[in-house]
Amino acid sequence: MWWKKTKVFLDSFYTLAALILIRFMVINWYVIPTGSMMPTIKKGDHIFCNKLAYGLMFPFMETQTFTWDTPKRGDIVIFQYPKGSEVYVKRVVGIEGDKVSFREGVLHINNKPIEEIEILDRKILEDMGESADDKTLYEEKGLGPDHYIMRLKHDSAIRRITLQLADRMRGLPSNPSVYSTEGDVEERIVPPGKIFVMGDNRDGSNDSRFWGFVESKKVYGRALSIFFSTIPQPGLSLPQFRGDRWFKALQ
Fold first, then answer.
1. In order of start, what are the domains of the chain with their CATH numbers?
2. With contact defined as beta carbons under 8 Å apart, do 27 and 50 qualify?
């Protein structure tokens, strides 16, 4: 009968609408194509995002309609690149009022250094999708949950610092491809309603150091965990999975 077909159609429509709303307003997932958040997030990771972590953003809107919390230092957040349409994933290192700076490569918040401990066991750097031979691995403490970061080894940093100085003498803006935290001497003060974000791959991330702050109300949500992870394999139709990253919580 026609009313039975109509009921089936409406049930399917409501189910589809509910799934769309859940994805756009409650929880979403993203595939990571770059290494800016390595080693915490690797190329090929598929991550879950809690879109209700800070507020409610309706589908196809760029600003939260209702806000009940703000990003904290150490949160991994998802947002739209302020100067384009790409979706970025970075770590919050500064909130409004903070003074963010580097001294000899070490992150300082409000003139206090964030503790770094060099990690000699480099197993976490395996299967990253790109080489980390020129990077030193650290555990960073005091910026939310303890987490890993990478910075250029001193010799590689010196080469980049030379290029940075040459760019400054020519009046050119900072360039992520020749940037080194060891050569960073600028202090940034985070304005009201903004956050300062960086990648855990400190010398391999295009972030607030180059294009400025992110509006807190335009953050899509907070990254929760890795659903699964694949190793990029050019030319292969079937992906290779990283067996140790299924449902791995993010810190």
1. 2-249 (2.10.109.10)
2. yes
